[in-house]
């Protein structure tokens, strides 16, 4: 997932008086360093489970601060794979 609203994340942390360490623990991380990188804008992406935990902990909808990104440029929704013809002996 990608963090799309860093300002909202920071404002919500301030409003609820949640520290980076506390939110990192809620995300399931042992260290708060990646949380710091997200907050400062050094990092933008994270796995789905921590993103869900962060949103839940801050009482936000996931799509308020995160968006799902597909890694593969080849992935196309609704586009079928081309069919190959198989030659048969007559």
From TrEMBL:
One protein family per Pfam: HTH_26
InterPro entries, per the entry: Cro/C1-type_HTH, Lambda_DNA-bd_dom_sf
Domain HTH cro/C1-type residue range list: 9-65
One GO molecular-function entry: DNA binding
Domain of life: Bacteria
Name the record gives this protein: XRE family transcriptional regulator
Organism listed in the record: Brachybacterium endophyticum
């Amino acid at each position: 997932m990608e963090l799309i609203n860093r300002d909202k994340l920071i404002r919500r942390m301030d409003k609820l008086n949640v520290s980076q360490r506390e939110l990192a623990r809620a995300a399931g991380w042992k260290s708060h360093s990646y949380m710091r990188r997200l907050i400062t804008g050094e990092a933008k992406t994270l796995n789905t489970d921590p993103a869900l935990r962060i949103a839940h902990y801050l009482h936000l909808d996931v799509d308020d601060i995160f968006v799902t990104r597909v890694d593969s440029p080849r992935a196309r929704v609704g586009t079928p794979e081309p069919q190959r013809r198989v030659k048969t002996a007559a």
